[in-house]
Amino acid sequence: MSNNLLFPANEPVLAPVQGSDALFPVNRIFCVGRNYLAHATEMGVTVDKTTQEPFYFLKHPSSIVPSGATISYPPQTANYHYEMEFVVAIDKAGFEVSEADADDLIFGYACGLDMTRRDLQLKARETGRPWDLGKDFEQSAILSPIVPKAETGVLTEGSIELAVNGDVKQSSDLNLLIWNVREVIAHLSKFYHLQPGDLIYTGTPEGVGSVVIGDKITGYIDGVGEIDLNITA
């Protein structure tokens, strides 16, 4: 490394791989917006797959927090929301990938929480501004250990569920994604050269809601595993 750095460079963000000492170096985090019909409805919008395309927002890799952590309630919000998500980990480069070839880019899967400052997101939406303050902030991307596809096979269905203090809030199935994983990879790769280390948070089901200091979030996805998070002052 160069000795001309003005200050120390950030360490790479490394995600654990279940059942292995290997680590997954995170490159980028892509998040799919409104990818379950019922969630779109609860957010007051409609999605018509025949006339619309998927859309995305990004989180910085430094926002990743491992499952099991205790994190602080974030600043400048009074409406801090959980969003349980199915995460796809990419380990091969791809550009303009076909749906038929999309599975080849997948290393594995994880459970994720897209934590959201909902009041800031909605304020931005109402004024036509970017969502960054509501979505891309410290400790906003929770991630469980990545389970290799070699162990799970290609996942296209399975229960996805989240509870707060043991009370189930979100319960759905991966087969209810509006744009499935193959469609998302193919579409996203039209706009970006996908790279090893990219993560795709594929969207959250209905039932999103707020948490407060002292709450414990738990969730699971069939075939992938579990995730949990504690909120402190």
Provide tags for this entry.
233 residues, mainly beta, five-stranded mixed beta sheet, 5 helices, globular
What's the architecture, going by CATH? Alpha-Beta Complex
Report the β-strand fraction as a percent range.
25-35%
Provide the succession of SSEs. Answer: EEEHEEEEEEEHHEEHEEHEEEE
Please estimate the helix content. 10-25%
Q: Give the C-level CATH assignment.
A: Alpha Beta
Look at the structure and give the mean pLDDT. Answer: 97
Class by SSE composition: mainly beta
Task: Please explain how this structure is put together.
With 233 residues, the chain is mostly beta strands. It has a single domain (25-232), classed as Fumarylacetoacetase-like, C-terminal domain (Fumarylacetoacetate hydrolase, domain 2, Alpha-Beta Complex), CATH 3.90.850. Helices cover 13% and strands 33% of the residues. The chain contains five helices and 18 strands. The longest helix has 9 residues, at 118-126. The N and C termini lie far apart (38 Å).
Can I get a quick summary?
This protein is mostly beta strands and 233 residues long. The protein has a single domain (25-232), classed as Alpha-Beta Complex (Fumarylacetoacetate hydrolase, domain 2), CATH 3.90.850. 13% of the residues lie in helices and 33% in strands.
